[in-house]
Amino acid sequence: MTEKHTTPDGLVIVDKPSGFTSHDVVAKMRGIARTRRVGHAGTLDPMATGVLVLGVEKATKLLGHLALTEKEYLGTIRLGQNTLTDDAEGEITSSTDASGIPREAVDTGVAKLTGAIMQVPSKVSAIKINGVRSYKRAREGEEFEIPARPVTVSSFAVYDVREAVAENGTPVLDLVVSVVCSSGTYIRALARDLGADLGVGGHLTALRRTRVGPYKLDSARTLDQLQQELTVMPVAEAAAAAFPRWDVDTRRAKLLLNGVRLDMPDAYAGKGAVAVYEPGGGFLALVEEHRGKAKSLAIFG
Predict the structure, then answer these.
(1) Is residue 160 annotated as a catalytic residue, yes or no?
(2) Minimal CB count within 10 Å: which of 47, 177, 209, 260?
(3) Cβ atoms within 10 A of the Cβ of 75, count?
(4) Is the pLDDT of residue 2 over 50?
(5) Are residues 145 and 169 located together in one domain of the fold?
(6) Which DSSP category does 100 fall into?
(7) Which pLDDT band holds residue 114 (cuts at 50, 70, 90)?
């Protein structure tokens, strides 16, 4: 009799290679983990590399809540050229000599794009406009506007400014930057907007995501490494790293699993999703406080 293969519930932190879509990585992981139940907590552009959080089996129920967490990136912004996609994947639409821009002007432009800002996402993005993906409208040559959305850029730092010459001979400046931002922030839109503010255009030439919420690059594995050894962060550990923890006694654990809305301590009010654990350390549920009671978001027990 053949042994039944069981895939553990949990998160897989992937170091995504360049050239892969997030969906490509999910498809690959379905093969590695031998299950259809795989999803991702927020996409990463094909050009970009770095942390992509995947959920396997029951952990897929965590993903929508993890997608809302803060992200951290390292990237390179090229000043002096605009592209159709605001990154190096798209064709160049304009070129302007950027060699005369002083560092002070760069820092002033970066400061304007730090904090709580309104950002217009890139037109070649997965955002839906009246039910149709923005990139589809853009590729069909349609004229349309995407409304600006509030995002938070809590840190935008320039580590290095390098003079370079683009392939078409235009003198450009390459900025090595790090960004810490809220979910839904487009780093290529920051590149575009910085270039526009400085009057020379700008786009993103490289991007590496180094953190999604509490999950960092040092715990990520390449697809090749995962093919050799599937490393799954148990769902209980993954939830404890990402959400406030609430330990309940056996009686309340049973009530919760039976659909009873427990009274929640005031300490969890306004905290968003909270991970609930039973006495043995088992992960029971994600809940959120609603009028003093625990409203279930997902049950795991």
Answers:
(1) no
(2) 260
(3) 21
(4) no
(5) yes
(6) T
(7) very high
- Compute the residue count for the chain: 301
Parallel/antiparallel/unpaired status of strands 283-290 and 274-277? antiparallel
What is the C-alpha separation between 283 and 11, in angstroms, rounded?
14
Q: What is the CATH number of the domain that holds 283?
A: 2.30.130.10
| CA–CA dist 236, 282 (Å, integer) | 7
High-pLDDT (> 70) share of the chain, %? 91
Residue 129 confidence (pLDDT): 63
- Asked if residue 98 lies in contact with residue 194, where contact means CB atoms within 8 angstroms, the answer is no
pLDDT score of 137: 61
Final residue of a structural domain among 212, 229, 258: 212
In terms of Cβ atoms closer than 10 Å to its own Cβ (0-12, 13-18, 19+), residue 263 is exposed
SS3 content of the chain, % helix, strand, coil (to 5): 25, 35, 40
- Residue at 1 is within a domain: no
Which of the residues 45, 86, 87, 174 is marked catalytic? 45
- DSSP of 117-174, one letter per residue? EEE---SSSS-EETTEEHHHHHHTT-------EEEEEEEEEEEEEEEEE-TTS-EEEE
Distance CA 293, CA 287 (A): 9
